[in-house]
Q: What sequence folds into this?
């Protein structure tokens, strides 16, 4: 019971901090907008899939990208807390390290999730054909994706000491995960042949299944079996497994933290 | 009565430095235990180990009967701490910080509002309670932190330099509250401070620590008594010469230069004073003033550590600088 209350408290704190951060609220509009408008419109010329515009295809990819970048960035909250000394107040409290980790993780995931929803708002504003009902299906998948990704960010932040090295490591992880997830191009389908190394790396990239699941839901029948990497339920299974592993590692990392 | 805190050969080493060196202390349940010592003596390190933030290199300790390593969780449930360094969330309001603390420490929801209002009143932050902490002054943040440490009525309360940077009235209120708290709830308090008047007024017993070890441990009055004698403070135009003369006459260890004045600790001050005048006149030193008083805790500190607490002002600056640094961010 008291652990649950601790969890809720820590969650609420992350949400409050997020909502009060104006710059972050603004920047979360700009980035996906630029990708969808410039990249989505500009590169559409060279893209030929029946029934689907390029913008439509990368839209779920940009949702995934937003989730990835914002989730990983959340790790910085650990470093701020260490820097400002607030981490000590939490660590010396009677709530368990698991609760501390989960509170932060779910709080940061919620923030990241809200930013993912903003991408849908932008998509609809740009008149990308999106069935509002599919949004409802996409929401739980998005939340599921953020759990694992936020856990990576938190784990890295709790293991390393400084803001600078966190920034470096983050870029080092973000970009490959993004580019090799199929967010910007289909990984398989008629007439698509990618180098085998790329396919192999993508197979081991958790974001691949996140983007794939989002496409299955948002694009519906147009994203048929020939383009799908995995059926939806397998995608979800893989993401869940990934979450479980990352949460375990994250909790371990928090247990060691001083 | 069982001891609130017991340490057995408690040690923490950083590389080759023994920050805390085979510490053996027993803090009585319900007492206010003052831990004094110059900068770097190991006070914070010792407290950090007792609070389970830091693992000892060797040795053991119990807090409220729980082992600080094996039963860390139970220790944490029964203690409260006000850290030397800032540890608040400045993106939250004062009230939000307090609620968060109350929730983390399992204060019953029905009591939270009342307790938090009382605390806010105590630290005189009622009118600023709903402002973000980043708009507080350094001293206001410190007051909030102090109040926060008291919300959950811990059995053992660690206060690491709690009143640094506070104005005299607030310090006075805080002292009163600490005493009240101790009496009403039977709380044991471990207090570190560089303010000797604070240590003297509050502590039931005082341990003076230096280089990771306890140098002396006793009640403030006993400590002062053991200095045996009077303190003569001499101001003169040539302190250096006078100091050498008196040292030659009395032996080295009894004089210190503090704030441009010579302090001499002797058995029978009244008899010694005229002799000092004589010594000065014979050697062309002009004495501006001569003062006789009972030894205070500062003299005790000086006696056992060889350092004046005033030489320690760097510490205070450090504390204030830390607060200001936060204010800038
Ligand atoms: N993380 C650390 N790494 C290396 N040395 C450390 C570390 N923390 C403390 N020390 C050293 O341990 C010694 C004791 O430090 P501690 O902070 O316990 O002193 P203190 O008595 O609290 O001093 P102050 O009055 O300045 O607060 C110091 O020499 C300090 O330099
Ligand atoms: Mg200290």
A:
């Amino acid at each position: 019971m008291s652990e649950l209350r601790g969890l809720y408290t820590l969650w609420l704190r992350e949400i409050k901090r997020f909502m009060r951060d104006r710059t972050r609220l603004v920047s979360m509009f700009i980035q996906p907008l630029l990708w969808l408008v410039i990249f989505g419109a500009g590169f559409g010329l060279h893209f030929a899939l029946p029934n689907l515009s390029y913008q439509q295809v990368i839209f779920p990819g940009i949702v995934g990208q937003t989730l990835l970048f914002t989730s990983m960035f959340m790790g910085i909250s650990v470093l701020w807390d260490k820097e400002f000394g607030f981490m000590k107040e939490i660590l010396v409290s009677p709530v368990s390290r698991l609760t501390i980790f989960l509170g932060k993780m779910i709080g940061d995931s919620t923030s990241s999730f809200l930013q993912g929803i903003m991408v849908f708002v932008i998509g609809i504003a740009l008149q990308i054909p999106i069935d509002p009902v599919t949004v409802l299906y996409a929401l739980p998948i998005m939340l599921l994706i953020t759990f694992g990704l936020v856990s990576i960010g938190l784990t890295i932040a709790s293991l390393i000491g400084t803001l600078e090295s966190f920034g470096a490591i983050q870029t080092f992880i973000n970009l490959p995960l993004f580019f090799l997830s199929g967010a910007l191009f289909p990984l398989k389908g008629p007439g698509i042949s990618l180098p085998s190394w790329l396919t192999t790396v993508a197979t081991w990239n958790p974001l691949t299944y996140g983007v794939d699941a989002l496409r299955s839901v948002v694009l519906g029948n147009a994203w048929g079996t020939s383009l799908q990497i995995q059926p939806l339920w397998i995608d979800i299974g893989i993401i869940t497994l990934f979450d479980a592993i990352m949460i375990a590692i994250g909790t371990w990392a928090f247990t060691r933290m001083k | 009565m069982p001891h609130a805190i017991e340490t057995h050969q408690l040690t923490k080493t950083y590389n080759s430095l023994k920050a805390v060196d085979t510490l053996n202390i027993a803090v009585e349940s319900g007492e206010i235990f003052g831990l004094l010592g110059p900068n770097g003596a190991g006070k914070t390190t010792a407290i950090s180990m007792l609070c389970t933030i830091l693992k000892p290199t060797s040795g053991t300790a119990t807090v409220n009967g729980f082992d600080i390593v094996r039963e860390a969780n139970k220790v944490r449930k029964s203690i409260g701490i006000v850290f030397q360094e800032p540890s608040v969330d400045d993106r939250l309001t004062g009230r939000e910080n307090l609620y968060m603390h109350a929730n983390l420490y399992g204060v019953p929801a029905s009591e939270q509002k009342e307790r938090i209002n009382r605390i806010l009143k105590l630290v005189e932050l009622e009118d600023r309670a709903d402002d973000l902490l980043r708009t507080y002054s350094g001293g206001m943040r410190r007051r909030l932190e102090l109040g926060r440490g008291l919300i959950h009525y811990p059995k053992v309360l660690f206060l690491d330099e709690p009143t640094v940077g506070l104005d005299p009235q607030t310090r006075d209120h805080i002292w009163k509250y600490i005493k009240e708290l101790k009496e009403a709830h039977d709380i044991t308090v471990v207090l570190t401070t560089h303010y000797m008047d604070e240590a003297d007024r509050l502590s039931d017993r005082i341990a003076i620590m230096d280089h990771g070890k306890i140098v002396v441990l006793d009640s403030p009055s006993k400590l002062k008594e053991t200095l045996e004698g009077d303190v003569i403070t001499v101001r003169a135009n040539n302190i250096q010469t006078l100091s050498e003369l008196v040292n030659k006459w009395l032996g080295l260890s009894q004089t210190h230069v503090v704030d441009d004045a010579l302090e001499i600790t002797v058995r029978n001050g009244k008899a010694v004073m005229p002799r000092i005048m004589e010594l000065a006149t014979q050697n062309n030193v002009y004495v501006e003033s001569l003062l006789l008083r009972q030894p205070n805790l500062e003299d005790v500190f000086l006696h056992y550590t060889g350092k004046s607490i005033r030489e320690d002002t760097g510490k205070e600056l450090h504390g204030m600088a830390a607060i200001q640094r936060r204010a800038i961010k």
In short: Residues 67 and 116 of chain A are 6 Å apart (CA to CA).
